[in-house]
Amino acid sequence: MELFNLKENGLWIELAKSEMLIYGALELGGRLILVNDQFRKIYQCNPLTDDHVLFQDLFLLEEQQRIEQEFKLLELNPQKGLNHVLTSKLEDGQLFSVHWEFRMYRNANTLKPVISAIGYPLSRNKAVKFALSGVAHHFEIIFEKNPDILVVMDRNYNIVRLNPSAKNFFSKGNVDVPTKGMNLMSLKNRYNIDLMILLNSLSEIKESFSQTQALQINEEFYTVYFASSDQFISFLMKDVTESKLNLRKLKDAQLNLRQLLDNSLDTVIYFNANLVVTYFNYEAAKNFQTMDGELLSEGVDIRSFLPEEFKFLMSEFDEIVQKGKRISKDVFIVNRWLRVNVYPIKDQELGNFQFALTASDVTNIKEMQRQLEIQNESLKKINWRHSHELRAPLSNILGLIQLLEGSSHIEKADFDALLDGLKRSSEQLDVVIHEIVNETYSSIG
Question: What is the DSSP string of 160-218?
Answer without folding.
Answer: EEE-HHHHHHHTTT-SSPP-TT-BGGGG--TTTHHHHHHHHHHTT--S-EEEEEEEEET
